[in-house]
Amino acid sequence: MSIRVIVVDDQAMVRAGFAALLAAQSDIEVVGQAPDGRRGVEVSRETCPDVVLMDVRMPEMDGLAAARALLDPPPGVDHRPKVLMLTTFDVDDYVYEALRVGASGFLLKDAPPADLIAAVRVVAAGDALLAPSVTRRLIADFARQRPSGAFRGGPARRLKGLTPRETEVLELVARGLSNQEIAGRLVVAEQTVKTHVSRILAKVDLRDRAQAVIFAYESGLVAPGSTEG
Question: Vertex 37, ends 29 and 104: CA angle to 5°?
Answer without folding.
Answer: 60
